[in-house]
Amino acid sequence: MNVDADTRKLEQLLAQIRVEFPSFRLVRKDRSRFQKVIHYALIALTFGRMRRYLEGYQTTIRRTVYVTPDWDSRPALDRYVVMRHELIHLRQFRKFTLPGMAFLYLLIPLPMGLAYFRARFEKQAYAETIRASIEVFGPESVSDVYFRNNILAQFTGPTYGWMWPFRGHLERWYDSVVQACLSESQA
Predict the structure, then answer these.
(1) pLDDT in tens, 161-181
(2) Strands (E), 9-164
(3) What is the tens place of the pLDDT at every residue in 35-79?
(4) What is the rounded distance in angstroms from the CA atom of residue 8 to the CA atom of residue 25?
(5) Which residue in 108, 95, 120 sits closest to 173, CA to CA?
(6) What's the whole-model pTM score?
(7) Which residues make Cβ contacts (< 8 Å) with residue 123, sequence separation at least 6?
(8) 139, 137, 135, 173: which is closest to 154 by C-alpha?
(9) Which of 23, 68, 129, 155 has its CA 20 to 30 A from that of 146?
(10) End-to-end alpha-carbon separation of the chain, Å?
């Protein structure tokens, strides 16, 4: 795809999101006091292991997607894949509401180490990341060891508070999502 087609694809997705969520907003994380508070809280809660919250991760809360400072300079297709992931979170917030998401995502059954609902919500969103990556970058993109390990590390590392420690379970989940997505794309 050329740059114009890539940008159009992203803009079409953003337009679809705005239709589905009329009050949708993109806000730079580094310009939000609330996001800075979360950043420093995560540093403390993870004993200094999660320091890239502001510049390394997009975050959805209700109908707002907080983006990293480099968002506008990232390739359009990368942003497209990320927004497909974040769209899942927007829909989760609509379904469970802010209090429901906060309770389930942050506390049940434990805030760290065994966060079943956080893992469940992120599995849904990362499945969409896989699906979108196959769509725009091809099937080989999700077979890449770095790509696979990066997604699995989100669940088992400090980024999300070591939300799901069962690596074998996650590997089987990842492989089954890839297989299902490849089957969908061939149908």
Answers:
(1) 889 989 999 999 999 999 999
(2) 25-28, 59-61, 64-67
(3) 999 899 988 988 887 888 888 999 999 999 999 999 999 999 999
(4) 19
(5) 120
(6) 0.93
(7) 173
(8) 173
(9) 68
(10) 22
